[in-house]
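Key idea: predict the complex, not the pieces.
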Amino acid sequence: MTLDKAKKGSKVRITGINDKNIKSQAIRIGLYEGAVFMCSEKLPGGPVILQSKLQEIAIGRGLATNILVEGVQ
Amino acid sequence: MGHCHDCNVNIKVKDGEKKLVLAGNPNVGKSVFFNKLTGLYVDVSNFPGTTVDISYGRYKDYVVMDTPGVYGVSSFNEEETVARDIILFGDVILNVVDAVHLDRDLFLTKQLIDMGKPMIIALNLMDDVRRNGLTVDVKKLEELLGVPVIPTTAIKGEGMDEVLNYIDKARVGNRNPQLIEKMKAYADKVDNEAEALLVLEDDETVAERHNLKVSGMRDEIYGARRKEIDEIVAKSVKETNNGASLRTKIGRWMLNPITGIPMLAVTLYIMFKILGVFVASTVVGFTEETIMEGMYRPFIEGIVGSVINPQTFLGNMLIGEFGVLTMAPVYILGLLLPLIIGFYVMMSILEDSGYLPRIAALVDRSLTAMGLNGKAIIPMILGFGCVTMATMTTRILGTKREKIIATMLLGLAIPCSAQLGVIAGLISQLGAFYTVIYVLSIFIVFVIVGTILNKVMPGESSQLLIDLPPIRIPQLRNVLMKTIQKTWMFLKEATPLFLLGALLISLMEYTNILVVIQNAVAPITVGLLDLPKETATAFIMGIIRRDFGAAGLSTISMTSVQTLVSLVVMTLFVPCIAAIMVIFKERGYKDALVIWLGSFVVAFLAGGIIAFIL
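Result:
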């Protein structure tokens, strides 16, 4: 599924980023294929907030539709 | 000595001197280390072909060079390009790392280690580590990375002397063995291993310098590096509890619309009280009226007037009503400077506390409808201070498309503080009903113009992707340093524009062009907007200084509807002459002309519609 479909409070693993321009920059701030995050907040129609330990990243909804994730138990 | 294959660094290094490069992610406290190392003797030079300034100084027999904060070495943007070339140029690297965000910061660290340059690590912000309920096993980290790691809290001076002592003990760290193998293929094709690594990581600039093709292995190498970092972090960082719970909670409240919107409203209200009421009237009243108008103006008029007749052309240019030595300094130093300082203090507090990126996330959705992302809130807030300053800040936006939309909206619908004060005074006399209509009209124009631009402009806007740092109490010193730096930058860039503006206006006044324009605009104001003829003069004066225009309206007798219409038109109407020039400078004359003429049309159209309805 894509990141925008992830439920708030669920854990997800990033499986793909379908945006060439963003990919290499995202990997730097810790957003990369294989990384596990908790979807800590979803603003209505707005950005998805991912959290890993103390780090949080805000991802615009449009970009979230281009990021593939899978659920993690 | 490492060499540098046409890499642009124009810093002179004497024989026997080694080059020490400071590298780190943004906001990790690098500058504190730089100042500690170099003391007061710092040079700043522009990096050739860029807008980036780099600082360098000396420590013992080292030339110390600062780099822009980056998340990795490559060429995704101007900062990275500059950082990359300085790092390639350096002999020893001091890597400043945020201990709280090791999983993010170690990407750059591991990349620097793989470059094979001797380095030491300052593990900074250790006080934050404790506060966040984390522990970092420094010994373990040192063992895993293979370079000296010194825990520091730079802002309090802790660990700084140890860092200085360790610089001579810098060494090459534990490099990825597979990468060393792969790099062998480039051994005789590039100057050093650092360059080999960058070619391997698809850095096209470095590859081109050596007539090589990139390897196409970037994703694979970056991925493997991430895995290594995850292992290092797992082995060296422990969470002792879910500490920082309150700060994490505050951060959440700021993001969640139900709590976040009221919090934002309160914050903006406090800002308005401090900036709009205290700074804009009390402070400016003193600086503009008492100091500049009361003391400076008579002083300069006396001095210049004794040499040059004020009635002559030259006298008019220098000390006339809009003179370069009279109006311009009064405006810049008396009115703008206190406001600019006030706004930058506020913005630095918002930024350093970690609130600003959360505001950006909160408003992201509303702004995407207008082809902007949450980051655009920064110039929008600054616009209420000074549209000229805000327009310069549109540089932080990702694409040309966003820059144009933001510039247009700023020029059109954001009233700057100089103007806001006068408008507030006029509109409050009309009562609540007209105030609501005024605010609503400006807001509707903002949304409609933004939405239309988003629809008609080609290309796509960039999406929000930002790091949300933990909420913390800002350090006064940092806030002041940032404010001083940014205010200075603003003065340096904007002063020539204001001077040129004053000159142009004086020239137009002297040659009577001003009157010709006023007469040309009059039919529109009378016919379309149903306003007295004199309002045209006020509109034109608004170009010189936005507050002049609004103040000019107060002397014309008008009905409530007429006052409302003229205020709406005045707000939407082109920004002041300095803002216009900055728009031309930033956007190029073609786009700027469209923006400029566009705001004329929108302003009169909106005014006409309101005049027609009411």
